[in-house]
Amino acid sequence: MTDVASTTAGYFPRPDYLIETLKEVQGYQKQDMGPEAEEKVEDVFQQGRQDVVGIQEGAGIDIVTEGQLSWDDIIAFPATRIDGIEMGGIKRFYDNNRFYREPKVVDELARSGEITVGQYEDAVGVASEDADVKPVMAGAYSLARLSRNEHYGSRDEYRGAFADVVNEELRALADAGAETIQLDEPSLTGVNDEGVDIEDGIETIERSLEGVDADVIVTTYFGEISDAYPRLLDIADGVGIDLVSGEENLDAVEEYGSDGTLSVGCMNARNTRLEPVDELVGAVDEVLDRAQPEALHVSPSAGLDFLPWTVMKDKVQRLGEAAEEVDA
Amino acid sequence: MVHDKLFPTTIIGSHPKPKWLNKVRNLNEEGEFSDERLEGAMDDAARVVVDEHERAGIDILGDGEMRREEMVEYFAHRIPGYEFNGPVRVWGNNYFDKPSVVEELGDPEPMLVDEFEFTRRAASEGHGVKVPITGPYTLYDWSFDEVYGDKRELIMRLADIVNDEIHRLADAGARYIQIDEPALSTRPEDVDLVVDATERVVDGVTKEEHENVERQIMHVCYGDYGAIYPRMLDIPVDQFSLEFVNQDFAHIDTFAEHDFDKEIGFGCVDIHDREVEPVDEIKENIERAFDFVDPEQVWVNPDCGVKLLPRDVAFGKLENMSQAARELRDEYE
Question: Where are any strands of DSSP class E within chain A?
Fold first, then answer.
């Protein structure tokens, strides 16, 4: 019997008051990023975190995330907490109307302190006592693909260095009490990146998972991962797939089944159209017809940061309702 | 014609808004200032920017988009069938009101003709006016589609709407039309669709077909142009204006592999950096264009609109850019 739970995929839109506060303290250019700019507004971030967790709990979401309101995107936040990185030009984020500063790796990579452990602890602090809080961390292979190597002599060394940094953070998250961790590896989809190599990806991810005492769900979005899917089953406790932008993922589930945890992105995180609850339940049932994982997480297809705040709230509400219906 | 010389200088579109214009807009939104007063403030701001462009030495200028808040929002507010649900992030802490298509799109009233006519009157002799209009692929990509489902159908509908507006502009005397398609390379597999859509956009208003039109230009930024080259040369425009500095001139080698048989509006100053580049550096930047085109094919512009820069920095960049073009003109003529 599969245990069904609802969850979110991190990356929430910022509430208006947070956008406005950040506008006051930040500029728009390269010079304005990093921990110092963020510390000035930590209490406002905490307020936002509380709101985001509250919305999830109010909607009956079983496994909540802190919303990554300070992250900007998968890469900007960790990049400012890893030594050896300088920020470069603006690039498109996969196939989205969304852009990020490309980190340039100019020296040995090293974790300069905790990346998201503190945020995880803050989220546990604002969540209700028995809530499951899931930290979200950027995966080493995607970090490597989204950055530019100007230091390491070989591709293997370069992605290995990212794996070690991520590994350190995952261990720290586990030490801080995280039982389930979402590790984002959208680059495995190969969307808008012809240089993606599944072998490299799997090897990098495996290295980043070594000795981590928590269930790590390697989560992908924006496309299909049919080739990587069976390999991920071998190396990870859980796999996250996007069924909205990667219908082929359903075939992979049918062919290879699923043990451990399967996180199913069945709600479109990139369109304001509100899916009827029945439609979401139907999508989950399609998965359960093909595989019986130990646990199935009902999730948006990606972070809800691609949507306006009000639409996000409606979507989270429906997600909670859908998961409850599946459960029943 | 203004552009009949080497290295005509131009802008992409947006310019920093004077603080007082934002103030007036806020007061208008709060009901403190009438719409007429806001109109008057936008007129004044447009005159100021046209003057700044002229003083900076820009040949083919604009009003800095003083009347527009954002390049998709502006049109979505005027085309019937859109709804707004709130801000969505573009990058960092930069947001825009990303619209949703909630009904089949209707035909808008004229959207840019008044803006163009005002700018033309504000500009002094010896200057051309460029009119930026957001292209159908970007209008599609930077909104949510809750209705059409079929991407091509929605894009072609938008192409008709944009084509209607360009006809109105051309009839009113617009010579330099710039179709903004920053989303062009979002999905390299869609380039054929953009070719088809642009054919529709320029139908009847190419420089061959319409007596007033001198150039159809397409502006693209943040693109992996390599992934859509040389296919992008099939897009029926006379000129591509592209960013180069932000990408560290990444695609020049790729462009050189085929005959780049259009003009290039060469992005030669970085709009994401507050440092004003010295004239010599800008000259060197521009000369990199000659790796894939002849000097006669080159127009000179910033990478993109300059609205996110402080106003004095934006002016400094345009001024140095124009000086660089002047010096190169002397050297190459």
Answer: 3-6, 63-64, 82-92, 99-111, 132-133, 136-138, 148-149, 180-184, 215-219, 238-242, 261-267, 295-300
